[in-house]
Specification:
Blueprint (H helix, E strand, L loop, with lengths): L2 H11 L3 H4 L18
Length: 38
Protein backbone atom coordinates (compact mmCIF):
# COMPACT_ATOMS: atom_id res chain seq x y z
CA UNK A 1 0.00 0.00 0.00
CA UNK A 2 1.27 3.45 -0.81
CA UNK A 3 2.12 5.85 1.99
CA UNK A 4 -0.42 8.57 1.19
CA UNK A 5 -3.57 6.41 1.38
CA UNK A 6 -2.22 4.70 4.49
CA UNK A 7 -1.60 8.06 6.14
CA UNK A 8 -5.10 9.24 5.19
CA UNK A 9 -6.65 6.09 6.68
CA UNK A 10 -4.67 6.45 9.88
CA UNK A 11 -5.66 10.10 10.18
CA UNK A 12 -9.34 9.38 9.55
CA UNK A 13 -9.41 6.41 11.93
CA UNK A 14 -7.06 8.01 14.47
CA UNK A 15 -4.84 4.97 14.60
CA UNK A 16 -1.34 3.82 13.69
CA UNK A 17 -0.35 1.57 10.78
CA UNK A 18 0.39 -1.20 13.31
CA UNK A 19 -3.23 -1.12 14.41
CA UNK A 20 -4.42 -1.58 10.82
CA UNK A 21 -2.23 -4.57 10.06
CA UNK A 22 -2.09 -7.68 12.17
CA UNK A 23 -0.33 -10.97 11.72
CA UNK A 24 -1.97 -14.12 12.97
CA UNK A 25 -0.35 -17.51 13.15
CA UNK A 26 -2.14 -19.94 10.87
CA UNK A 27 -3.57 -22.97 12.59
CA UNK A 28 -3.27 -26.44 11.17
CA UNK A 29 -6.43 -27.75 9.55
CA UNK A 30 -7.10 -31.32 8.58
CA UNK A 31 -8.66 -31.68 5.13
CA UNK A 32 -9.88 -35.18 5.93
CA UNK A 33 -12.00 -34.11 8.90
CA UNK A 34 -10.06 -36.41 11.22
CA UNK A 35 -8.28 -34.93 14.25
CA UNK A 36 -4.55 -34.55 13.90
CA UNK A 37 -2.38 -36.79 16.07
CA UNK A 38 -0.28 -34.70 18.45
Amino acid sequence: MKTEPLQALCTALRCTPNELYGVTVPREVSLTGEPEAA
